[in-house]
Design a protein that fits this description.
There is one protein chain. The chain is mostly helical. It has four domains: 71 residues, 434 Repressor (Amino-terminal Domain) (Orthogonal Bundle); 96 residues; 92 residues, Alpha Horseshoe (Serine Threonine Protein Phosphatase 5, Tetratricopeptide repeat), CATH 1.25.40; 92 residues, Serine Threonine Protein Phosphatase 5, Tetratricopeptide repeat. Helices cover 70% and strands 0% of the residues. Helix 8 packs antiparallel against helix 9, helix 11 runs antiparallel to helix 12 and helix 16 runs antiparallel to helix 17. The radius of gyration is 23 Å and the shape is globular.
């Protein structure tokens, strides 16, 4: 009931927490978004906060009390707003500096953001985290401290959102997951303030992907679905394909095979519409059929269906750009695991050795984690000489 009433007002969980604190006459940080999340999930009961929540939501406290007593909860969907930060790091300063920010500044920032994307194609997170964080701080400072028109301000917010997506991705690749989460949420806030739903969905999907890969699978699925739902059917084809790709992976990580398969099929269908003259944002330049095939193969590997995964991965790897060392190592690691599932330990060992060689000088937490997974799976075949050699060398 709390969630239904909150969403009817268009509030995030953080906003409800702040409003309940104001009603109670307490500092706004007396409650957190997490408290509201627990109430809405039924994990905890508000108890002494009930009167203040009721007042904030403008309903009789008896109605909330009855709902709490019965455990009744509306089956309303989670939205992207539920994942936004409580504090607004993008709030303009009351006293701004004299410098006037114009469209030229926005163009310069857009160029640097795209340059960072292109650098990420060939360099790993550990190499790029410093420049990415410096750009992030500089862009937020430019927006908050400079003077600009409403139009320029919106354009700046969009660039901050785009920068947050690639900076968050870089931070995640460097193993700095908390930092990445903060950056993604800052970007989501910027994109939402700018009214760019496609960008909000891209950022939310990236954060969902991190959740799915770092032990927060249920949150990953909820956010991936929310990103898809909030984008609507009018999202550009590549964007919708990417959202569905994230949904497919999120379902896979909670071992839901059929929804994952459906999402993969819908992603391919969405990408096919890209040839119908509908333009997609520049930052989705990398979303193409080969990337969807890689995700499909990864889903099959995770679900232990190697007869489908191995041919797909071999086909993609045969035409993959060898300068993209991190991605090449990652995709080969999935092939190695699929080969172990296919009971091909000798070939799996050869592929694993190639992954280890490629990733030895790559400053990526993702590749490091994949090497661990790959070696763990090879342990089942330690009696095979080729496998034993790889395991001993890695040790």
């Amino acid at each position: 009931m709390i969630r239904r009433l909150r969403q009817a007002k268009g509030w995030s969980q953080a906003r409800l927490a702040a409003e309940a604190c104001r009603t109670a006459g307490l500092p706004v940080d007396s409650l957190s978004r997490q408290d509201v999340y627990r109430w809405e999930k039924g994990k905890r009961t508000p108890r002494e906060w009930l009167p203040f929540i009721a007042a904030a939501l403008e309903v009789p406290v008896t109605e909330l009390g009855e709902a709490a007593a019965s455990g009744a909860q509306g089956a309303t969907p989670i939205t992207v707003a539920d994942f936004l930060p409580a504090a607004d790091s993008l709030a303009p300063l009351k006293v701004r500096r004299a410098r006037q920010i114009g469209s030229g500044d926005v163009t310069d920032l857009a160029g640097r953001v795209h340059g960072l994307r292109l650098a990420d194609d060939v360099l790993a997170g550990g190499d790029l985290i410093g420049p990415a964080l410096r750009e992030m701080r500089s862009a937020v400072k430019l927006y908050r401290e400079g003077s600009h028109t409403e139009e320029v301000g919106r354009a700046l917010l969009i660039q901050i959102g785009e920068l947050a997506q690639i900076a968050g991705w870089i931070a995640s690749d460097a193993g700095r997951h908390e930092e990445a989460e903060r950056i993604y949420k800052l970007g989501m806030s910027a994109a939402q303030q700018a009214g760019d739903k496609t960008l909000v969905g891209n950022l939310a999907g990236s954060l969902a992907y991190q959740y799915s890969n770092t032990g927060r699978e249920s949150e990953g699925l909820a956010l991936a679905r929310a990103a898809l739902d909030q984008s609507g059917d009018n999202a550009p084809p590549k964007a919708r394909a990417l959202y569905l790709d994230r949904v497919a992976w999120a379902h896979t990580k909670v071992n839901e095979a059929q929804p994952a398969m459906r999402a993969l099929g819908e992603a391919s269908q969405a990408l096919a519409e890209d040839n119908e003259g509908r333009e997609s944002p520049q930052y989705l330049y990398w979303v193409e059929a080969g990337e969807l095939e890689v995700m499909e193969a990864r889903v099959y590997t995770e679900l232990k269906r190697p007869l489908r995964a191995v041919p797909l991965l071999r086909e993609v790897l045969a035409r993959y750009d060898a300068t993209h060392t991190r991605e090449l190592a990652l995709y080969l690691s999935w092939l190695a695991v699929a080969l172990t599932d296919a009971n091909e330990p000798e070939e799996a060992a050869a592929t694993a050795q190639r992954v280890i060689t490629l990733s030895s000088d790559v400053a990526s937490e993702r590749t490091a984690e994949r090497v661990k997974v790959m070696l763990h799976r090879l342990e089942d075949f330690r009696d095979v000489p080729e496998v034993r050699e790889v395991l001993n060398h890695a040790a």
